[in-house]
Amino acid sequence: MKKFNIRVYGIIINEESEILVSDECRFSESFTKFPGGGIQWGEGLKECLKRELKEELEMESKIGELFYVTDFFQQSAFRSEDQLISFYYLVDSIDTANINVSISGDSSDNSEEVFRWVPLERISPELMTFPIDKHVAGMLKDLRLE
Prior knowledge:
With 146 residues, this protein is of the alpha+beta class. The protein has helices at 45-57, 131-141; strands at residues 3-11, 18-26, 29-33, 36-38, 62-69, 82-93, 113-119. Helix content is 16%, strand content 36%. The chain has one domain (3-141): Nucleoside Triphosphate Pyrophosphohydrolase, CATH 3.90.79. It is built from 2 helices and 7 strands.
């Protein structure tokens, strides 16, 4: 049965103009993506992202403006019967100084999700694993911060 899989991700930028990315390993595959995940029944989009950031980063956040919504067909890399629809929000308020980041970005133990900061000028589609994240990384590359 074909179905939609709704995902919500956060664009977290710190004071040094670095963007938070997640290095993860699941199903014996390593990948780099933005923090976030799947919506659960009964959740709104922002509520989902707040929950995901609480689970992943162990901190509260304030979700800001919608940055991007998938506008092309994307089949799930993990479930061929799913079509992904992804929402990306800017995260307005989170304690970026206390986010536990990895120096190496190594998630090779097949269970851990680790985070790292990437300077805005180094964000590129090639850095990310999945097609929608690649598209968003290309958009971020052109982002000018005040």
